[in-house]
């Protein structure tokens, strides 16, 4: 489905300039890119929320986990 939108010449020029500065062929491509960017942002936020939820669940089940930095350093020292 196609829609027609009336915008000011000033806004059109700004959008056209932004599209060209990004190497895009049209304002339509610019708007499409913005839509994809918003979807990407939503997916990243969802992933972070899942990570935070997992961290909370692990903490509730196992408590505070010890810092393994010293163990990793020891292991690396043995392998060199």
Structure description:
This protein has 80 residues and is mainly alpha-helical. The protein has one domain. It has 3 helices and no strands. The model has no long low-confidence stretch (mean pLDDT 93).
Q: Features of this protein?
A:
74% helix; 80 residues; mainly alpha; 3 helices
In terms of topology, how is this protein built?
Layout (H helix, E strand, L loop, with lengths): L8 H13 L5 H36 L6 H10 L2
Biggest sheet statistics: none
Spans of at least 5 consecutive residues with low confidence: none
**Count of helix runs:** 3
Beta-strand residue percentage: under 5%
Mean pLDDT over the full residue set: 93
What is the string of SSEs from the N terminus onward? Answer: HHH
Terminal CA distance? 64 Å
Total strands: 0
Structural class: mainly alpha
* Radius of gyration, whole Å: 24 Å
Helix content: over 70%
Number of domains: 1
Query: Outline, from the CA principal axes?
Result: elongated
């Amino acid at each position: 489905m196609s829609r027609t939108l009336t915008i000011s010449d000033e806004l059109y020029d700004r959008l056209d300039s932004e599209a060209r500065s990004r190497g895009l062929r049209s304002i339509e491509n610019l708007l499409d890119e913005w839509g994809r960017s918003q979807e990407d942002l939503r997916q990243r936020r969802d992933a972070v929320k899942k990570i935070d939820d997992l961290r909370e669940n692990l903490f509730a089940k196992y408590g505070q986990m010890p810092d393994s930095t010293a163990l990793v350093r020891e292991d690396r020292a043995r392998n060199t």
